[in-house]
Amino acid sequence: MRIALAARHDAPADLLADLITTGGSPEPRGCPHRPDPAAALRQVRLAAAGNHGTPAAAVAPFTAAPDISLARVLATRRDLPPGTYERLVALGDHRVTAAVALNPAAPDDLLCRLYDAGDAAWRTNVLANWRTPLDVLVRHSRAGAGWVATDRHPDVDGLRALAADPDPKVRLVAAASHILPGDLRAALTDDPDLDVVRRAIGNSGVPADQVRRAAERWGPALFQTLAAHPSAPPELLLAIATHPDSPAGAVEDVAWQETAPPAALEACLRLPSAAPLLAGNPSTPPAILAGLTTHPDPQVRTELARNPALPAGAVHDLFVALTHPRTVLTDSLGSAAIDVSE
To answer: Total structural domains in the chain?
Structure first.
């Protein structure tokens, strides 16, 4: 029971402090599940240490020389003194260090050292840490080593400076942020570098006029990013669905867009892999849904069965196709009889 209480995030802070300090009052005794009182107290303390509702002051005495199990729990807390994270890394446990690398409370210089240490897991976690110093992210981007996670980075002034850098790989770091001011976001969506634009315009908050302008400028090269964008205007979705150079993935994204106009969804039929997406899209025109009831792909018919927009008259045809796979049906679009045998 004490272990369960120690893990409750809504438990009173004074109770959690008591549990991690003494195990609670009265003194814990052995039970059938934990016959050793010392082992029981240890489990209570581990649970309380991992509970972010436990006051940091109560946890502090256990940070001086923690064993590995306790260190792995402490490494996830965000309210400990900076020196604690240094001591945790000094223990040399790979999992502890990986957890510290992901912790936004870890000191900047420690995150820099972990990035430079060469361990793939530590570097990945440092890059995923939303408080990693921008200079580390810039170094990573300049090396062409892949994506940087600045989506929630709090240093807006620093990001603004990066957005004005002449090096597009530096501007990429700023473009990945999801908290940029509107003027800065607009500037990056108009950037002369396609990669910067692709990253900046992927943000769901970019308005329709900027999406439209980017599409006019870059054409099919940007369609894969724009097709699933929530602000993509209907005429752009139609252009993506009908353009001969549109990537298959972009056409599939249009097929799943509930804001796509009927003509765009109909145009997606040219791509066989879009059929399951059209079948599951409640915005797909009823005539198209009815026509798909005779489709030979079971995944298409399953998506139709889930789609509340499937016309009532087509439900029977779909049921026959599902339960009598060798029945020959005439589809509701008026085409010739289709053998749906499997």
So the answer is: 1
